Amino acid sequence: MKQKQLADSPHDKRGDNIVRNMQRRKFFSQAAGLASIAAFAAACDKDDNNNSGGVDLGSGDFGILNYAYALEQLEAAFYTQVVATPYSGMSAVELTFMTDIRNHEIAHREFFKAALGGMAIQALEVDFSTINFTNRDSVLATAKAFEDLGVTAYDGAGYLIKDANYLLLAGKIVSVEARHAALIRELIAANTFLGDQVDSNSVNLARTPDEVLSIAGTYIKTKINASNLPKG
Amino acid sequence: MNIITILEDIEKVDGEVYERLNPRRKAMKEFFSFGSKAALTAIPFGLGAMLNKAYGQSVPAGVINVLQYALTLEHFEYRFYERGATLAPIPAGAEKMAIEMIRDSEKKHVDFLKTVITAAGATPVAEKAAYDFTAMGTFPTVFTSYATFLAVAQVLEDTGVRAYKGRAGELLGQKVYLTAALGIHAIEARHAAKIRYMRRVNGQAPDIKPYITGGNDTGIAAVNANYGGATPESNVNQAGVTITNLAGVGGNISVSSATEAFDEPLTAAEVLALVAPFGVS
Hints:
By secondary structure, chain A is mainly alpha-helical. Chain A has helices at residues 2-8, 14-46, 60-84, 92-116, 136-157, 164-188, 209-216, and strands at 55-56, 224-225. Chain A is 62% helix and 2% strand. In chain A, helix 3 runs antiparallel to helix 4 (92-116). Chain B has two domains: 3-55, no CATH class; 61-223 and 266-278, Up-down Bundle (Ferritin), CATH 1.20.1260. Chain B contains eleven helices and two strands, in the order H-H-H-H-H-H-H-H-H-E-E-H-H. In chain B, a hairpin with a 2-residue loop joins strand 1 and strand 2. Chain B is globular, with a radius of gyration of 21 Å. Mean pLDDT of chain B is 88; it is low at 30-46. At the A-B interface, helix 1, helix 2, helix 4, helix 5 and helix 6 of A face helix 7, helix 8, helix 9 and helix 10 of B.
């Protein structure tokens, strides 16, 4: 039965996956060489403190993956701070949830970093000066905003992905972000798990990378250049 | 049938619907807006043909197939909550309200998919005349025990998330259809998290979390396959990267975190085998 299922599913052939992964690894490592040359050239261009270009997410599927990596960096940094300096009155179960979510976001971040290898963008500098980490309302409102934003980001970028394997990866992550979003919303108020995140068909909202980065930009000090992302 | 509503719904997923129907967009819109009464009586029989002409040749059969699959599952989910909200002993108040919200959400998915499939020139699959919500006796108390009802609801939502995920690849690059499917997929995940959270808070499953930990974390052996499959929920390898080999806080990322952080897909064959005992096909 298992063999049959594997054979029936062209995208799930383990052997193929291994070969593809090895090819991808090889490609990543070759591309890494090119990328570091490009990065060096870009750095030379920028050493007059004029960072008008910002960190280039890149193009194609790698650009989208870097876009996801940027958002996961933001989320991981946020929850790392939340757990390090719990808001006043954080219950034991809330600490458990926040720690879990922190670990998930770190897993996402580290996964993208490892998978992108030399194609990965640098570590981003965050700016959480608008968040009051001692205050439950402030932290949960920010968590809600980040999680909802993450869902709309993955949903809105899905169609820009060319490789079905990467689309599946985005799918594996976005539903977890949606689970986080629902949880955070329930911690704020019962029965708000959908809230204002659905349209009249009960379909989750989606945002373009430009819309997402404009919102996320408040919390990211490093300038991000998304101009080479696929436009659809 | 309200044509204006249908067209407005289609416009939400396809902003160019009016151009497709008639390049003279403005004239088309005005026709449907001002001529409401005439349109309502005169157009229904022509609508299918008109939409077919507009979309028929442009929507690949594979896309229709995925939409019909989604509708098949949504029909079942909606009816599960519709019957459950009526029959199951759900406590009045916030919990009853949550179930009704999910029921209404599933109903909107059904209506939306029917609209989209019709707009794509196909005939939406019909709801089954009857389902067996006990899954051939596996859950005999599904509508007499609140705990059983919620446990089954959780399994169905988790399975629904996996089902959509498993077929996303067939909608690759399809802006309208993929974005809609991903949007429903995210809502199913929100439902799943909510049901799981309810079960934790009301004490039916005090240790369960809004995300899937390890694999089948329901404590119900009968649903092992809902969390198994070719790529089981216990998977910790993503695109050649072993997540548990990556650095977390105070050591490598744990198996619990690695499995919670990534939901896994089910193939269509796997899903259809799982829902067959409920009378879904």
